[in-house]
């Protein structure tokens, strides 16, 4: 049986799980009360349950249904998280117990990075080796230029631009940002390159659909001494 392992950052079932979540991020060090309170404020400001876990669960279910419909095969889709359960080791044990014979490891970030994509794949290899499982693994490293992804982001950009007053359409400036700065540029060349390519692809497609939308895809990173 084939299976896909979707890997993402975290899935918090409750705001009460912030303490173990941040303790895991800090590699076993308990966060200070100030840090924890700041985290609570951030999550409360969202106004809904943690969206990352909910969205990932819906994506996994939708992907499994789509694969079964298109291929006629039973292809299981599993989820694993970096900083909350289910962790990679327990998910891999379940995958092996279910009789999976070929595994596709899919980080949910389309941008390749050593601390993200590469680290996720490494955890899978370590977990399989730890239990002596010899399952072939196909590692999906980046998919930032997948046409459907570019179209989805471009559609969001066009929708946001359309919402502006018509008098401001020609004045619009679009800033492409990443989740966090990648650290030293020299150590994160792949991430910066992929992000630049994605920004340009989205800008080109959005500009083609909105003639008056002036977009220059420029990615800036902080200077490091």
UniProtKB/TrEMBL annotation:
GO molecular function, one term: ferrochelatase activity
One Pfam family cited in the UniProt record for this chain: Ferrochelatase
Coiled coil: none
Superkingdom, natural source: Bacteria
Example GO BP: heme biosynthetic process
PANTHER family: FERROCHELATASE (PTHR11108), FERROCHELATASE, MITOCHONDRIAL (PTHR11108:SF1)
Family designation: Belongs to the ferrochelatase family.
Protein name: Ferrochelatase
């Amino acid at each position: 049986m084939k299976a896909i392992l979707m890997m993402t950052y975290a899935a918090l079932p409750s705001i009460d799980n912030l303490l173990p979540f941040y303790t895991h991020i800090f590699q076993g060090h308990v966060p200070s009360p100030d840090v924890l309170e700041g985290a609570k404020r951030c999550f409360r400001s969202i106004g809904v349950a943690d969206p990352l876990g909910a969205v990932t669960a819906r994506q996994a279910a939708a992907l499994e249904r789509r694969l079964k419909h298109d291929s006629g095969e039973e292809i299981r889709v599993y989820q694993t998280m970096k900083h909350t359960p289910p962790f990679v080791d327990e998910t891999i044990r379940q995958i092996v117990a279910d009789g999976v014979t070929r595994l596709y490891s899919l980080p949910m970030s389309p941008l390749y990075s050593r601390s993200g994509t590469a680290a996720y794949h490494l955890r899978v290899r370590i977990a399989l080796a730890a239990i002596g499982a010899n399952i072939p693994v196909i590692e999906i490293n980046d998919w930032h230029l997948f046409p459907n992804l570019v179209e989805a982001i471009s559609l969001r950009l066009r929708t946001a631009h359309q919402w502006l007053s018509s008098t401001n359409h020609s004045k619009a400036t679009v800033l492409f940002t990443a989740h966090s700065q990648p650290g030293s540029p020299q150590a994160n060349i792949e991430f910066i390159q992929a992000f630049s390519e994605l920004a340009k692809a989205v800008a080109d497609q959005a500009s083609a659909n909105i003639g008056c939308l002036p977009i220059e895809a420029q990615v800036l990173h902080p200077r490091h001494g």
